[in-house]
Amino acid sequence: MAQIPNLDNAALNLTALREQSQKELLSIIKSIRGKKCLVIDPKLAGTLSLILQTSALKEYGTELRILSADPLQTECPKVVYLVRSQLNFMKFVANQIKNDESKGLQREYHLYFVPRRIVACEKILEEEKVHQKLTIGEYPLYLVPLDEDVLSLELDYSLQECLIEGDTSSVWHVAKAIHKLEFAFGVIPNIRAKGVASTKAAELLNHMQLEDPVSMDNMGIPEIDTVILLDREVDMVTPMCSQLTYEGLLDEMLEIHNGSVEVDASIMGAQQDGKKVKVPLNSSDKLYKEIRDLNLHVVVQVVRQKATSIQQDYAEVKSTNTQSVSELKDFVKRLHSLPEIARHVNLAQHLQSFAAKPAFHARVEIEQIILEAQTYETCYEYIEEIIQKQEPIETVLRLLVLFSLTNGGLPKKNFDYLRREILHSYGFEHMPLLYNLEKAGLVKRQESRTNWPVISRALQLIVDIKDPENPDDIAYIFAGYAPLSIRLVQHAVRSGWRSIEELLKLLPGPHMDLKRVRCLDH
Amino acid sequence: MSSSVSVAAEWDLLSDRFYRRITIYSPLPWSSPATTTASSSGGGSSGVGRLDLSTHIVAAAPFGGPIAAVRDDSKIVQLHSEPSRRRLLLFSSSGHPLASSPWTPHLPRLHSLAFSSSLNLLALLSDGSLLRFRLPDLNPITSSSPVPLLPPASGGVADAVFWGGGVAILTEDNRVVVTTDIEVDDPHPRELADPGVAEDEQVLCMAVVEPQFVMSGSPEVLLAVGDRVVAVDEDGVQVLGEALEIGPVQKMAVSPNGKLLAAFAHDGRLLVIPTDFSRIIFEYECDSALPPDQIAWCGLDSVLLYWSEVLLMVGPNGDPVQYNYDEPVMLIPECDGVRILTNSSMEFLHRVPDSTTLIFGIGSMSPAALLYDARDHYDKQSAKAYDNYQLISSSLPEAIEACIDAAGYEFDVSRQHTLLRAATYGLAFCSRFPHGRFQEMCKILRVLNAVRDPEIGMPLTVKQYKLLTATVLIGRLINANQHLLALRISEYLNLNPEVVIMHWACEKITASAAIPDVVLLEGLLDKLRLCKGISYAAVAAHADNSGRRKLAAMLVDHESQSSKQIPLLLSIDEQDKALQKSIDSGDTDLVYLVLFHIWQKISVEKSAPLDFFGVINARPLARDLFIAYARHSKHEALKDFFLSTGRLQDAGFLLLKESRELERNPMASKGSPLHGPQVRLVEQAHRLFAETKEHLFESKSAEEHAKLLRVQHQLEVSTKQAIFVGSSVSDTIKTCIVMGNERAAVKVKSEFKVPDKRWYWLKSCALATVGNWDALETFSREKRPPGGYKPFVEACIDAGQKTEALKYIPKLTDPGERSEVLVRIRVDTAC
């Protein structure tokens, strides 16, 4: 049950990419001799678990700690901070150093920024008067393979930063990450971008190629043909909908982090109660690879069928003596998949206890109604009711955003009323949240007619799924709604933006279709 | 083979090896023709005329480097037409003046001159201080005042030995001071262990084993004291070779590989011994017991001793070779021989290479000699050429190789030609010989011939060139302002011309003080464009340092790398441009760099932060980044910014944030009057929201928030329970009902105009929580609930009371809803 995904089946040599990151990290650790305490920020700790076994670090005399506002507890004479270059972490680092000093502890401090040093962070360290005490370095981790077909930038707050704070650091980060990828796999000849940030990232990428060119001569044919960049802003609808595939439900109910979920041991059939276990979820698990994108009830069928067939085999093995050794070997091989089957039986059962609830059905149903954008009153009253019932605020806001997006906003009276109901039900501390949602255009006052029906029709977002067990359209994953972003990608792959230019204009931000040709010297 | 004979006739036999003296440059002009006064600073060249080695302190750099000289004022000199003031003179190896500058008067006496390995000129003064000069114009490095190397009261310099990276100084009071970083600003001299020279003893001579040859990596200084030799380093003193009984040593020289020592003993013996003094390798008894003026190694095979008018070359076996000179001589050791500088010529003395011996050796019948001969016949259209070929056909590759190799050792261009032509004759018959070898040698010779030209004056041999490397040679050329040649060589050898063009551009700027910016810029750009990826920022930085800020600004515009361009823009005070460029770059880190720079400047200049706010407010990215940063560390500045730029709502939210922080603060314990400040902050925020037109909702909400805090505070006082502050309106109502305080709940309901629909949800939920089913039923009968009986049903189901729920299910109006709830009860039972 390795959490580090197996990447052997990846289309690109992601293993090399990951090994590079491993090597860079270990060389940092090795460069600091003797016993040391490695302090990682909480998010990064999860990310690193996708790159190497953190226990491997112990071989180099390393103790591991998670960065927090509390003083650092360690006996090590050397402290190595490994943190993402975020302003809020700097105060933590400064406080820990100051705390050591107040106790008269003499330590050697190193700070490695991930992925690069940032003037603003160092400024805070200067203001806190600890900058001089730190030896500063960089750990250029830009992309992390989450699975054999997914690379993650691990930028949790980029949407908030871009849409609300106006901080576009992540756009540069995206461009840089792709540029780094190009050093390994060649210059990507086609770029299709949609949205303000994506087009900007494409521009930056082009500029980086000018400043620090990836040589096109000795690379041969580029391994990546096209990069499609979409702003999240282009499709805010999809993430508001309840996910219904096996993997989607796992995420909805248990939250997948860094390719694994944490569940009570009792759910996994273990005896110890109250203990949490980590269950890795990636394509290294053959069964999971097969069922992750299926609907829950199909998953149950598949898993049951597998279990039954093993059972039959077992019965056969027991009843007859005629089996050859090779047949027996086959059977034993299949037995090896039993733990996998058991794991998914447990998880699926756990999910079903949620998914079978009427409240869940009601929510999926109302989402469908909202997406069809036909009956305003029903939706409005439903949302009003769940606010007044004080259902979890995340549920409320997801539906409200979905409603506002598909309806082109809410009439002022309704808008103010619902907002007031939210503040009354959940507390006035949510005022900035509502303000930010408005600023980001996610929940807003209605100013013009909605173009959602046009978009929905043109891209065939609402599809009637005839055979949910053998679906022929991606829409099955949301019970009849095909994610807008996926439709865009389908178009981008098939024919580029040209065929849907008019439609793209209805979505936020400019679009760009770029061909990068081999630039000839002189 | 007549031609070959004449070549070998010039050789001298030392034991079984031939040596030859090649005259490279003669006569040496020492002054340039009036037309070429390119780089020498004004007036110098006319005064030069002739350099007399006997009356000057002279230094010459290895690898065919330049020659520096200052008149030795300890000697009586007849001044001819020269000015009486001394000058520091710089010549190429071919005797062409490169520069001169007046020697600063009233300095302590000059002890010696030397060149460092990166060709800075070093002048050691008798008080132990050091002057350093940069080539080609002899400008003093760092400061014009000398850098002291010796501790005070050491009595000054008695002797000193330089090497490429440092110097070892013997002081008058017999201490040894060494520096190994002679090029850096602070040479960091350190004293070695006390060599232990007794009062009545004298240090006879000194030599240094350079650090690269010593295990410890620091130099080892050899001193001949009395009849012993001691090795001094940082850790201690070691007496060497007592068993060898050499007696007092008058002169020493360490071999080029640091392994051997040539020592001239007081009895006229020349001894060659390993530097660890383990044994005597050979010794030779000279006619004179008088110590030689100079001693030097010629390669690793022989030692040169120079007494006035006599130069003696001693080898391990056989009779030495004697050369006579009627003028003073300076020996300049090279890795593969010795250059001999006289007043009138520059010679190179070296062992004749094996390949040359094979070809030109008297009576040589080697394949190489035959091949050389064959070419001669071939040119004379004689059939003997082919006869020769047939004789050597089996060993043709060696013969070709020897011809190519020998060509490399020749200074004479026509002889290079003949040798290479001989090689090509062989190549025609020999396809298996690697052709690249021939081309490579041609390339090397082209480069060598170009730099050996008297105008350039770098008499490098092929071996020296390979050791020096092409890159360093190019560096030396550009430092001598030979940019065109350097560029040609770079291009010819496929090296990146960036370093040449960059240097040229900087020199051009320095030398063009009178040329207007626009004209100069055009000239610079013309050349800079030749080199892709060249750093315009570096050239611009140089322009700025040369006091040409405007030119710098124009140049930096052409820099494509923002990370180089922006810091420079800041350093030339182009803040606005820097800010704009950083925003264009999309790299927020660069934007921050500029922001902090401007912020810093403003706080230094004490100009109002309003200027800063004005600058950033016009640029959204800069503004937003400043806000993001200030949120973490500069709340007050941020508030000022919001207020001064009319963003009252943002200031309002900032106040709300502060109020929440107060709430979280454990000091503000609940129910205490400390809620006062929190309420005040919320009220302030309310007023700020109210001042804007667009934030009516926020304004009302803040007002309600403040009201709620007050109400909750009162509730906490009246109930004596600190459970209200921080909860929502709905939760406050629920808590009241749960506590059985219906009246308070109703009061909150009316004060906050809670809609009936919500009231029904809240109250039924709260009553079900405490299991007050009677009250719930009474409540259901009060009036027809505005949203129907759903709240009652759900409250009962959620509390697990199905029987209670059944009371209300029939009252649900929507039949769909009714059946759904019934299903749900059943489902729940099933679970």
Automatic annotation (TrEMBL), chain A:
Query: What InterPro entries does the record point to?
Result: Sec-1-like_dom1 (IPR043154), Sec1-like (IPR001619), Sec1-like_dom2 (IPR027482), Sec1-like_sf (IPR036045), VPS33_dom3b (IPR043155)
Q: Which domain of life is it from?
A: Eukaryota
One short Pfam family name for this protein? Sec1
One GO biological process term is: vesicle-mediated transport
Q: Which SUPFAM superfamilies match?
A: Sec1/munc18-like (SM) proteins
Query: So what family is this one in?
Result: Belongs to the STXBP/unc-18/SEC1 family.
Descriptive protein name: Vacuolar protein sorting-associated protein 33-like protein
Q: Read off the lineage from the record.
A: Eukaryota, Viridiplantae, Streptophyta, Embryophyta, Tracheophyta
Automatic annotation (TrEMBL), chain B:
Q: Which SUPFAM superfamilies match?
A: Putative isomerase YbhE
Q: What Gene Ontology cellular component terms go with this record?
A: endosome; HOPS complex; lysosomal membrane
Domain Vps16 N-terminal positions = 53-436
Q: Where is the signal peptide?
A: none
* Protein's cellular compartments: Vacuole membrane
UniProt keyword Iron-sulfur, yes or no = no
Q: Which GO terms describe its molecular function?
A: actin binding
Question: Which keywords does this chain's UniProt record carry?
Answer: Membrane, Vacuole
Coiled coil ranges (UniProt) are none
Q: Name one GO biological process term.
A: intracellular protein transport
Membrane topology qualifier: Peripheral membrane protein
Vps16 C-terminal domain location is 534-825
The cross-references to Pfam families, in alphabetical order and at most eight, read:
Vps16_C, Vps16_N
Say yes or no: keyword Kinase present: no
Spell out the InterPro entries in the cross-references: VPS16, Vps16_C, Vps16_C_sf, Vps16_N
**Protein role:** Required for vacuole biogenesis and vacuole enlargment in dividing and expanding cells. Involved in the docking or fusion of prevacuolar vesicles.
The family annotation for this protein states: Belongs to the VPS16 family.
Q: What is this protein called?
A: Protein VACUOLELESS1
Q: Which organism is it from?
A: Aegilops tauschii subsp. strangulata
